[in-house]
Amino acid sequence: MRSANQSQRRRKRQLLFARCSYQKHHLLGPCRRFSSIIYRPAIMSSRTFFVGGNWKMNGDKKSLGDLITTLNTASLHDETEVVCGAPTVYLDFARSNLDARIGVAAQNCYKVAKGAFTGEISPAMIKDCGVEWVILGHSERRHVFGESDELIGQKVAHALESDLGVIACIGEKLEEREAGTTEEVVYAQTQAIADNVKDWSKVVLAYEPVWAIGTGKTASPEQAQEVHEKLREWIRANVSEAVADSVRIIYGGSVTGANCKELGSQNDVDGFLVGGASLKPEFVDIINARA
C-alpha cells in the first residue's frame, strides 16, 4: 500500500512538472506577469479570421478595376472576412464593383455628422456609398497628420454611433520599442479607443508597429504574438473577459504572401491589415493564409 501511494504521489509530481514546463516554454504560463496582468495559457481561437486591405492613396479606376476583377474571380477562403480600404473618391466605385462577399472601408472619417470641415468626410457620407467599415487611428493619421489619441477616440465613438464597423489601429514607433515602452504606448492608445466603445462586436483592433509599416521589416511571429497576447490580457483586465475572448486583434506591418501563414498561425493573431501587398495579386494568398 505504501509503495502504491508513493508511486501515485510521484506520478502527480511528474504530471505537474510536465504541465508547468509546457506552460513556461510554450504558453507564457499562468503565473507570468506583466504590468500586473496575469498571463493565461493560450487556447485555439474561434474568432473569424479578418483580412483588411488598406489601399492608402494609391490606384486609379483602371488599376483598381483590375485588382477588383482579381479578387472577384479568386477562390477566397470562405471562413475569412475580407474588407478593402479604398481612397475616398473610389469608395462608391469599389462598393459597386467588388463582390458582395468582400466588404469596403473608408480610410478615415471625422467626429461629427456634417459641418464646415473642409476635406473631411462623415460616417453618414460613407454609409451613403454603401460602405460598412472605416479605418481609424492609422499611424499615418497619427504621425503625419498629427491626430491625437483623444481625437481618434472621438472619431471611434461617432463612427460606432453611426453604425459603421471600425478597424482601430494602434502601434509603437521604433524609438518607443527600443526604449522598452511598447506596452505603455499601445495600452494608452487602446484605452482611448476602449473609452469610446459600447459595442465591441463592431470593432477590430489592428496592431501595426510603425517601424514595420512599408519598411520591409516585419515583426517576427513571436513578437506579434507577444504584443497581441498582452493586449488581449489588458482588455481582459480593463474591459471584460467576454470582450477579451471575442475581439479580433489583427496584425499589420509588411505582411506578404511569404510570411502570412506563419504570422497567421499565432494563437492571438486574428488576421491582417495589409498595405502595399493588398494592391497585388498576392493579396489573395494573404486572404487564404488559414485556408
UniProtKB/TrEMBL annotation:
Catalyzed reactions per annotation: D-glyceraldehyde 3-phosphate = dihydroxyacetone phosphate; dihydroxyacetone phosphate = methylglyoxal + phosphate
Taxon lineage: Eukaryota, Metazoa, Chordata, Craniata, Vertebrata
SUPFAM superfamilies: Triosephosphate isomerase (TIM)
Any one Pfam family match given in the protein's UniProt record, by short name: TIM
Keyword terms, alphabetized: Gluconeogenesis, Glycolysis, Isomerase, Lyase
Xref: InterPro entries: Aldolase_TIM, TIM_sf, TrioseP_Isoase_bac/euk, Triosephosphate_isomerase, Triosephosphate_isomerase_AS
Database matches in PROSITE patterns: TIM_1 (PS00171), TIM_2 (PS51440)
E.C. number: 5.3.1.1
GO biological process, one term: glycerol catabolic process
Gene Ontology molecular function: any one: methylglyoxal synthase activity
GO cellular component: cytosol
Record's function text: Triosephosphate isomerase is an extremely efficient metabolic enzyme that catalyzes the interconversion between dihydroxyacetone phosphate (DHAP) and D-glyceraldehyde-3-phosphate (G3P) in glycolysis and gluconeogenesis.
Subunit structure of this chain's protein: Homodimer.
Family: Belongs to the triosephosphate isomerase family.
Keyword Isomerase: yes
Associated pathway: Carbohydrate degradation; glycolysis; D-glyceraldehyde 3-phosphate from glycerone phosphate: step 1/1; Carbohydrate biosynthesis; gluconeogenesis
Descriptive protein name: Triosephosphate isomerase
